[in-house]
Amino acid sequence: MSLSQFEWRVPNVVGHSIDPFSKKIKVDHTEGFGAFDSIFTGYASGVRVVDIGGGEHDYNKAYCLHKYFTSLSILDPFMRTAEHNNLVLQEAKLKPFDSCTSISVLNVINLIKSRMEHIKLCKSVVKECGKVFFKVWPGDGSGIEKVNANCFQSNRTLETYLDEIKKVFGSKNVKFDSERKIIIAVKNSP
Ligand SMILES: C[S@@+](CC[C@H](N)C(=O)[O-])C[C@H]1O[C@@H](n2cnc3c(N)ncnc32)[C@H](O)[C@@H]1O
User: Fold this and answer.
1) What is residue 44's predicted lDDT score, i.e. its pLDDT?
2) What residues in the chain have per-residue pLDDT under 70?
3) Which of the listed residues 31, 37, 73, 76 should we mutate to test ligand 1's pocket, taking the one with most ligand atoms within 8 A of CB?
4) Is this model's pTM higher than 0.85 or not?
5) For 15, which DSSP code?
6) How far is the CA of 102 from the centre of ligand 1 (A)?
7) What domains can be seen in the chain, in order of their start residue?
8) Is the CB of 114 under 6 A from ligand 1?
9) Residues 87, 93: Cα–Cα separation, whole Å
């Protein structure tokens, strides 16, 4: 798909219709295009990245390719087929990804056991010294969980997930970038 064919003005997961190149709108840096901008600005281009919990659409994939020359594979246990997810996992096994992103995923997982599994999966799909970037949508930041029939929202800020991520990657391999609101975890760095 070429740039001219791609329809940028698309609904993102929280339902806003956004054009990432518009100067007028405020892009959310915790989800969708804005999250990728905050992660990939200044990051090496031409890398292979897997986005876990990336949702059902390929808009982010097209955006990252055109703006950052970054190949994004998307895996999502609920929004993609088992067949699709298995192909991504197979690819990771054959050639581990350079990096992994987890964007607005930890905040929707209510059980600690499932969050730990998600964090471990993110680690397992990258190469040695590969980076995993975690971002969350903090909601109102109160830490008061919101639960309804089919969704969970933790309302937790990113730094409250540091301990869980450190347990998987080891403390020395995890950094919190408070300005860009990203936790960067490195797999078994020397
Ligand atoms: C708020 S959406 C974020 C989608 C996308 N990352 C973005 O920023 O536009 C949360 C996503 O997490 C996925 N998800 C929920 N539980 C998950 C889990 N245990 N592991 C991986 N993804 C999960 C959902 O299917 C959903 O697509």
Assistant:
1) 77
2) 1-26, 189-190
3) 76
4) yes
5) S
6) 8
7) 27-186 (3.40.50.150)
8) yes
9) 10
